[in-house]
Structure formats: C-alpha cells, structure tokens
Amino acid sequence: MMNKLKFLTKISLQRKTNNKWFLIANIIFAILIISLLNIDSIVSFFGGDFDKTQIIYVKDNTNKTYDILKMQNDNYKSIIKENENAFKLEKTSKTENEIIKKNNDAWYLTIDIDKNNYIKATLTTKDYVNTNDYTAISTILNNVKTYIAINESDIDQNELSKISKPLNIKRNILDKSKKAESENHQMLLSTIFPILILPFFTLTIFLIQMIGAEINDEKATRSMEIIISNVSPKTHLFSKVIASNLFVLLEAFLLVIYALIGFAIRNTYNKTSPLDITSAINSLLSSDIINNLTYIIPLALILMILTFIAYAILAGILASMTTNTEDFQQMQMPIVIISLVGYYLAMMANVFEGSIFIKILSFIPFISAILAPSLLILGQIGILEVIIAIILLIISIWALLKYGMRIYKVGILNYSSKNLWKKMFKALKG
Amino acid sequence: MLKIENVTKFYGNFKAVDNLSFKVKPGEIFGLLGVNGAGKTTTFRMIVGLLKPSSGKITLDGHFIDYNITDKIGFLTEEHSLLTKLTVKQQAIYYGTLKNMKEKDIITKLDELLKKFKIEEYKDKKIKELSKGNMQKIQFIMAIINTPKLLILDEPFSGLDPFNTEMFKNEIKLLAKNGSIIIFSSHRLEHVELFCKKLLVLKNGKNILSGSLEDIKHKYRKKNIEVIGDIDEEKIKQIKGVISVNLENNKYQIKIKDESVIDEVFNIVKKGKNISKFSVEQPSLNEIFIEKVGETYDE
Fold first, then answer.
1. Which of A16, A194, A373, B25 has the least C-beta neighbours within 10 A?
2. Are B138 and B30 members of one domain?
3. Is residue A87 part of a domain?
4. Cα–Cα distance, A294 to A377 (Å, whole number)
5. Are the beta carbons of A4 and B97 separated by less than 8 Å?
6. What pLDDT digit, counting tens, does each position of A348-359 carry?
C-alpha cells in the first residue's frame, strides 16, 4: 500500500506541475515579483517621479524669508529622517509661467508680506499635489511664520535657538528585554508581515482549489471507482494531501527564488535608488529583531505547514461530497472566507493591540497560521501561546482525519446530491 | 471460484440487494441481468470491494475481497472511468501500477493489446481526443491489462460497432478459456445469449431467475413456431393455447403457451399452400426477460 501511496502522490504532483498552466502561472509570478521589487526603477524608466525630491522654486517678495524657509526645511528633514525625500528649494526671480513651462513637475512658491499674519504664501503647480507633500510644506511654512514671530518679539538669540530646535523624544521601555532602537523595526515588521503572508494566503486558496478540482475530476470521470477498488480511501486522501502540500512548498520555494532574482537585479542595476531595500534588510539583520526571527520563523513555518495540511484534508472531504466543480466552488466558499478573515485580522493586528478577543482568535485553527505570527512579532502574544495554537491545530487535524474520513469514504462514491447532508451526517456517526 | 453467499445490502432503509447467492467457476462467463435499479451496480461494487455487504459474504478462491486481492480483479464500469486528460500510456501506467504491475510489464501488455485492437497509433494521444468507440476499447484494455482472475464487465459493448463488438467477444472468450471468471452485464440480450452459459436476473435486488441458459429456456414453456407459406391465420388463432400470430417478412411467428399445442397447429399448417418451413423455436432470452421482469430491458 505504501508503494501505491507513493505512486498516487507522484502522479498527483505530476498532474499539477506537468501542465502549461503551471508554467504560465509561474512566468506571471516571476514577472510580478521581480517587477514589484524594482518598481521604482520601472516608474523612473517611464518618466515618473517615484521617490524623486520635489523641487520648489521660491520667489521671496519679503527679501528675508527664503533663508528662514531653508532652515526650517532642513529642520523638517532632520525630524522625518528622510534626507533624500524632502524638498529641494531654489530661489528665483522668474515668473511662475516661466518656471512651470520649463519644468512641469516643479512647484512655485510665492512669499509676500502680510500685515496681519506676518507672511502669506501662494503655491502654484501645474497639477494636483499629493496630501503628504502638501502637509509637509504647510508645516514648514507655519514653522517659518512662528520663527519670524518669535524673532520680532525681542527674544535673544540663545532663547530663539532653543525654541527653534526640534524636540527629540527619548524612549524609555521598562521591559529590559526590549530595546528602543528595535521599536521602529518592530513596527516595520508588523507592516511588512501581512505583505509577506500574502503568498501564504494565495497558496492556501491554490491548495483548496487544486484538491477540489482533482477529486471532482476523478469523480466526474468515474475513474474514482477504479482507483478506490485498488487503494483505500485513506491512502487516496493522503496522496492528495501530500501531493498538494509538496506542490505549495515547491511553489513557495519558487516564489522565494523569484524574490532573490528581483533583489539581485535591484543590486546590480539600481545601486543608486533612493528606496534602498538592501540597506533596510541589513539594518533589520543588525538589530536584535534577528534574534526574535530565529524562533518566529520556525514557529510560523510549523503553523503554516500544519495549516496547509488541515486545509488540504478539509478541502478533500468537502470535494468528496460534491458531484461537480460548480458544487465544490460553492462548498469551498466558507473555508476561503475563514482564510480571508485570518488575513485581514493579521493586517489589522496593530489596531487591536491588547485585545483579548484577537488573542483568542489567534489560537483558532485555520486562521492561527496567519494571525499568531503577526501577534508574536508585535509582542502581543508569546511563544507559549503559539505552541498552544500549534497543539490545537494538531488536534484539529486528528479530528478531521478521524471523523472526516468517514464522510470521505462515503462521499467519493456518492454521485447524487439528493439527501446529501443526511447521508454525510449518517456517515459521520459511523 | 467466486462465491456470493446470502448477500444483502441496505442503503439506509432501502434494500438494494436481497439475499443474493450465486457461484461462478474459473472459465465461466456469467450474465447478471436486470433493469436499471435492479441492484446490478451495487452487486458489482460489492464484488470489487467498493461496498461492504450489510450481511452475507463474498469470496474469491476462498478469500474475502480486500485490497490484497483486488489486484487480481478487472473492472469495466458502465460509464467511461478514464482520466481524460491523460494519454493512453499514462492511463495504462496509472491503473496498471494500482494493480501492482511493473511499468515495463504494463507497457509490454499495453502494446500487445493496442495492436490486437488495432489502435497502436493512440498510445500517446490524450484520452479526451478519442472517439466514443475508441475510448471504450481503451477502457476495456485498462480492465484486462493485469490479465485478471475475475473480470467484471458492465455494458462492455456500449458505443462499439459490430466489427469491434466481435473483437471484444473474441477477447472475452479467450480470457474465459484461459481461466478467468467473467461476470457480464449488457442491455443487448442477444450478446448475453451468445456468451453466457449461466445467468441470473435481478428484480428489486432479488434473484427472480437463475441457472444455465439451456435449462432456463427449456423450462420456459412458451414456444415459438416459425412458418413460411400460405396458411389459414384465423383458424390458427382460434386454437386454444395459441397466444398470437404475426406475419413479419413473409414469415409467420406463432406464439404458443406450451408444446401440447404444436400438433394442432401443425395439422392446420399442413393444409396450407406453398409451405416451405415449419419449425419449433426456443423462446429468445428477451422474451423470457420480459415475461419474468414484467418490463422490457431498458436500452
């Protein structure tokens, strides 16, 4: 029977990989991932202004404000710690039409004296400006106004310097195991983790649909009768579960390869890019986050593989109950929705910080693989909670096999949808 | 030997097979007949181990049917049980391996059978690209690729032209000659008559008629008299015991209730003119079936 299991697994895997759709899907994945990792270069190539410093031509009709504006712009840069992406200022005496005609992307800022409000500013652009940039220039101009106001209030230079100096908040975290420097990295990870688990979510959907399609195909062609007359339903289901899991692991491996190719292209052709992912990764690697990742990654992987197995068994059981692909499409909706709920909860885990409800949800099989690692990264749950989630998942797999197998045995040889649920409940009772 | 002993199968409260018993020896071709829903498919499914009987037992050479013995069984289902996206060769390797055959042996056997059925060129073609008749041939090849000890054929001639039907018949006879046990079901009762020495008719899961074909026909009292010539049809119809008189293709078909009527019919026929044939025929299996089951064998 072991030989037959191996053979059925091999055939099932071959049927998934030896077809043109696997090739086409992977070409699309490779192009998408490599393109996304080099999106700034692509945008720049087509003449976009991705990450380009916005230039502002300043016509200072007050003859004293430009220097203050420049100083406040530098201060703003130091606050946001994004030296490359702040504004580049240039004084001009030309008119707005002359400037914008020459450079469509440029901004033209006119500063005039205002008796009631120290200064007034007019920003002229060819098109709409984005909200972040508008907020930034408003903040800088308000700082300029404040500076002028303080300056005209007979305050000595020392005091003025103190008032103008940006305030740096010193972080003090009582938990000694946590370092203040890691705080930003942690926030960064909590943002990028949902992006990293998107392939997991996609692969889960793949897995569910592949198992359903294969079992439905075998049922619809009645080849199921020949197969089940030679191997037990248990061997048959196991072969599907193993093959589909091997397939998703292979696909995940290929996605990693595409990502590495994307990074390699980025490092080779795009060394001067302002969006330096490599240095961001290096920065992460040099922090103590890497120590956390040494246990977060294995735990997340265990949860993910167990979840793939659980989904595969569930999809197989549901597929066995259906008689055609349309029925399976309807039947799989609840499990797709459960998976989707897990994905959205993981994305919003930051928002629900401290919520007991979300912590409890992270234990629930089928969504724990997505939610628990997110909460672990955010420090909302510990290793113990993740281990509980793993144990609960193993218990669920055992229950699915014990009781679901009864349904599977009856379902795979059932071709009528009449009294379907009655038949399945009867099978469940054994 | 295949032994079915007091087998009953329930689906819930519905009794699909009711206390069924029969035996088939090696080399025998056994006909299992019945209208749709009579319990044939359930019986086949129990024989190949897909279903467990609610009571009774099924044994092949004294062993209960389980996964240790199903390698010796070949099963041709009524519907095409082929994975249509596979090529013929892939399909053969698939089903052959499930029968514990080695890939090399499967290919050798496949080549031999493809040649025999004159479809060698389809070896690397996808099954979905084949015609209905060729698909049936492939399905038959898949059922016999392991040279089964027990072969179950559910409607084996479906979709076949007379030439290919003949080819199938020869192969089935050869398998029987080589000692295979063959259980056969067909809507074409003339095939059953030609093939099966023993048969069983199921109605609502029950055995309503069984035994050797010769005995069944012999015991069936109604006979047919075939007459060619000019006869007094009305006089014959008046004889007590004559059921019907029909003229088809210049040939009279006279149905009689039993052999006691023959002399009386003959006495009237001999008074007719241009008589070139008077023969007493055994009833066809189809007639017996209609009589016993109460309805025609649905096609």
1. B25
2. yes
3. yes
4. 12
5. yes
6. 777 777 788 888
- The alpha carbon torsion through A392, A394, A396, A400 (nearest 10 deg) reads 180
Cβ proximity of A5 and A229 under 8 Å: no
Measured between CB atoms, does B75 come within 8 Å of chain A?
yes
Contact B84 A221 (CB under 8 A): yes
The token pair that represents A7 in the structure block: 């053979």
Question: Please, which residues 94-153 of chain A have a Cβ atom closer than 8 Å to chain B?
Answer: none
Report the relative pairing of strands B63-64 and B55-60 from DSSP bridges.
antiparallel
Residue B296 lies in a domain: no
Four-residue CA torsion sign, A30, A35, A37, A41: positive
> A226 in contact with B at a CB cutoff of 8 Å?
yes
Counting every residue, how long is chain A? Answer: 430
Residue B212 in domain: yes
Q: Do B143 and B274 reside in the same domain of the chain? A: no
Q: Which domain holds residue B268?
A: 221-281
**Within chain A, what is the greatest distance between any pair of CA atoms?**
98
Distance CA(A412)–CA(A410), nearest Å, equals 6
CA distance A385 to B244: 87
For position B89, which CATH number holds?
3.40.50.300
Q: How far is CA A221 from the centre of its chain?
A: 40
Q: Flag whether A256 is in a domain.
A: yes
Q: What is the mean pLDDT of residues A167-183?
A: 70
Averaged pLDDT score across all residues of chain B: 88
| Contact yes or no for A217 and B50 at CB 8 A | no
Q: Structurally, how many domains does chain A consist of?
A: 2
Between B116 and A167, the higher pLDDT residue: B116
Among A33-37, A377-381, B59-63, name the one with the lowest average pLDDT. Answer: A377-381
The proportion of chain B whose per-residue pLDDT surpasses 70, expressed as a percent, equals 97
- ipTM higher than threshold 0.85: no
Average the pLDDT over each of A84-93, A357-366, B58-67 and give the range with the smallest value: A84-93
Q: Which has the higher per-residue pLDDT, B5 or A279? A: B5
The whole model's pTM is what? 0.77
CATH number at B272 reads 3.30.70.920
> Are the CB atoms for A56 and A106 separated by under 8 Å?
yes
Predicted confidence at residue A237, as pLDDT, reads 95
| DSSP symbol at B87 | B
User: Based on the domain organization, do B118 and B67 belong to the same domain?
Assistant: yes
Q: Residue B226 has what pLDDT?
A: 87
B268 and B166 within one domain: no
Do B90 and B203 belong together in one domain? yes
B148 lies in the same domain as B231 = no
B155 and B227 together in one domain: no
Using only the alpha carbons of chain B, give its radius of gyration: 23
* B125 and B7 co-located in one domain: yes
Rounded to the nearest angstrom, the minimum Cα separation between A210 and chain B is 15
Q: A202: domain range?
A: 2-37+179-429
A112 and A148, same domain (yes or no)? yes
Q: Is the pLDDT of residue B134 over 80?
A: yes
Q: Tens of pLDDT along B227-236?
A: 998 888 888 8
Asked if A147 and A204 sit in the same domain, the reply is no
Same domain? For A397 and A256 the reply is yes
Q: Specify if B287 maps to a domain.
A: no
- The predicted pLDDT at position A6 comes to 92
A137 in a structural domain = yes
**Inter-chain CB proximity A221 and B71 less than 8 Å:** no
Average of per-residue pLDDT across A199-214: 88
